[in-house]
Amino acid sequence: MRTTATVPNQREADLIARIKAGERDLFYELIQPYQRTVYAVAFSVLGNPSDAEDAAQEALLKALTHLGQFRAEAKFSTWLVQITLNEARLRIRKDRKGLYSSIDEGGQDDDGEYFPIDYADWREIPSETLQRKELKEALEKALAALKPIYREVLVLRDIEHLSITETAAALEITEAAVKTRLLRARLMMRDALAPGFDGSWSVGSPAYKKVRPF
Amino acid sequence: MSEHHIIEINCEHVIQEISNYIDGEVTPELRARMEEHIRGCRHCAAVLDGTSNTLRLLADGRTFGQLFELPAGFSERLLQRLAAHL
Fold it and tell me: Is residue B26 a contact partner of residue B17, using CB atoms and an 8 Å limit?
């Protein structure tokens, strides 16, 4: 079992009650731990930092305005994620002439099965791998290349660690759809990131090019 | 029933369930069949390892702050906008 992004806690519930009662200056304290989640979720829809920041901040302002409508039966973090998804998607719809207008806005999964495209073996990750700038760049590039419907589910599940149930609720899709999209998203990420047969991790290396020629 | 009675499944079926397998969302029976297949299939073993590693990299990237790091000044700009709403 994966842990969820946060455990419900009394301090958070107290903060929400006090803000609803008028202590609005406590709002930043409430959302401070979720800034990165909100930003990541906005990024998952919009795919670039400046639009993501704008949508994330607007979503947080809306959360302040509408906090009175928040009911404790939902997790606060899930509620924030939903507001952020709505805000980010609104921007895509507003920007029909923009870069993202042609991208699938979330209705349809692609037809057909996705099958992993190479046989690269990848048993070990050297501990220093993560320090490499090229890996961060490769992760970002691979994420950016995903369609939003796949990037959203991957970010919520595998980066923000929402449960399948929470992810389905936030995206307003079925749990079965979450699982289907997640499979596709994970395999595409794996294909984008699989290293060369020799285990070396270098996008430009001949070994890498051998298994990832494109 | 011994493990010799586990019914073999093909690569396509294993790959279709590999994400659910990682999440612990398959039945014990399917898990056993998949593991039997993966033990003898270099391709599926590589896909499983690579997918698991990808998930570790994504989770670690988040934990260590490299992925989705807030843009510089994000919190300051947010605080300014919030102040206007208080």
Answer: yes
